[in-house]
Specification:
about 45% strand; 2 domains; single chain; globular; mainly beta
C-alpha cells in the first residue's frame, strides 16, 4: 500500500494569456509574440533567449515605460510564413522565429529562439503549435 497522498493539482483552462508589453513597441494583430529576458512582450524577431508565448489577439502599442500596456495572446496551432527551409521532413520537430510572422528551421541560424512544433507544411505556410 502506497503512503503517497492524492493531490488536487491546480489547472488553467483555456488558451488565452496576458503579458506586459515592452515600451515603445507596436505588436500587430496575429503576429508571433515573444517575451524578452525581463518578461516584456514584443513582436517576434530573430534573437536568442526570447520566449515565444503565442499569437497576438489584438494590436497593442507599448507605452512610454515597460509594462504600461498589456497584450492578450492565444496559444494553439497557427499558420505562419515559411522562411523557405521548412519541409515535410520537419513535421513534429521544432521551428524557430525568423520574424513576426515567419518561422524557420533550426539549421539556418543558431541564434533563433524556439517558436514551437511544426504540425504541417503547405504552400501557403507552416502550421505551428505554440
Amino acid at each position: 500500500m502506497s503512503s503517497n497522498p492524492d493531490r488536487n493539482t491546480p489547472e488553467i483552462e483555456g488558451t488565452f494569456f496576458c503579458f506586459p508589453v515592452k515600451a515603445n513597441v507596436v505588436i500587430p494583430t496575429g503576429v508571433i509574440v515573444q517575451l524578452d529576458d525581463a518578461g516584456m512582450a514584443q513582436p517576434g524577431t530573430q534573437g536568442s533567449g526570447l520566449i515565444c508565448v503565442g499569437r497576438a489577439e489584438s494590436r497593442v502599442e507599448g507605452g512610454e515605460t515597460d509594462g504600461a500596456s498589456r497584450i492578450t495572446v492565444k496559444r494553439g496551432v497557427f499558420r505562419y510564413e515559411n522562411a523557405g527551409d521548412i519541409t515535410a521532413a520537419d513535421i513534429n520537430g521544432p521551428c524557430y522565429v525568423h520574424g513576426e510572422a515567419t518561422v524557420a528551421n533550426a539549421n539556418s541560424n543558431p541564434d533563433r529562439s524556439l517558436c514551437g512544433v511544426v504540425m504541417g507544411v503547405e504552400p501557403e505556410g507552416v502550421w505551428v503549435r505554440i
